[in-house]
Design goal:
This protein is of the alpha+beta class. It has 2 domains: 2-32 and 207-258; 47-196, no CATH class. It is 46% helix and 18% strand. The protein has 6 helices and 7 strands, in the order H-H-E-E-E-E-E-H-H-H-H-E-E. The protein has helices at 2-31, 47-64, 137-146, 151-156, 158-175, 202-239, and strands at residues 67-74, 80-86, 89-90, 104-112, 123-130, 240-246, 252-258. The strands form 2 sheets. Strands 3-2-1-4-5 form a 5-stranded mixed beta sheet. It has a two-stranded antiparallel ribbon with strand order 6-7. Helix 1 (2-31) packs antiparallel against helix 6 (202-239) and helix 2 packs parallel to helix 5.
Amino acid sequence: MAGKQTKSGNAAAAWIIGIVVVGCVAGSYALGGGFGDDSTTVPGPTRTETADTVAILGKAADKQGICYGWRLEDDAWRGDVVSEGSNLGAGMAVDSDPSRCPRWVQVIARVNYTSASSEAEDSASIEVESTEEDTNLFQVEHGLNRLGLNDEAFIDEPGWAVTRAAVSLPLLMAEQGEVPAAPVSTDAPAAAPSRLPDPGPDLWRDRWGYLLAGAAMLLVTVVLVLIGRAQARRERAAAEVPVEKTSTSGVRVTDKRKTAGRR
């Protein structure tokens, strides 16, 4: 009887441990974005942002005689292009038609998102390319930073930032004296990006996996202790079985003897 109880208790403990482990794995997978939410993917601009940017760049190109464009790359995936466009249209690189755009300027942004478990930080780099050899591109890049289009802005809202940088190029090129002043746009200004939710302290964001594993191990330990105590009580109760014997006078006497190990 004691052997059967021990086996059933071990089976129950195994089931409990298995359920806890599966729950921890599923929770980690879900929190880490394993169910379709890939947090390391760089988002591109919306359709509205893209369409508005193409329209603004088209007006500037007609006025200044130089083309403008943008390219956003996901640096974590070997420079995959997330978004590209110019005054020629959405998805059309500014240097794709030399006959229509012999002169051009474009902003290139590379954003790298790291996973929550990684010690590395998210990063971004912004570069301006142009066919105009006399243009001080360093000053143009500095101008983007002066307008608030720095690394932090590209990390927070890469799609919005790259289109905003593109429509800022005509102004910055005019500051360099390379082209006439860009026309003033009568369109409503684009809405500022919404404030991102507070990511919380780094202790929880970067080490949630370790905390979850520690809590699971503590729970398993408590369950095993409780099961062990319950088995010990059952074994002590089974070890003391009333044994009836007949005395020399013919009177039955009940004697509690430990029967553990007896057959």
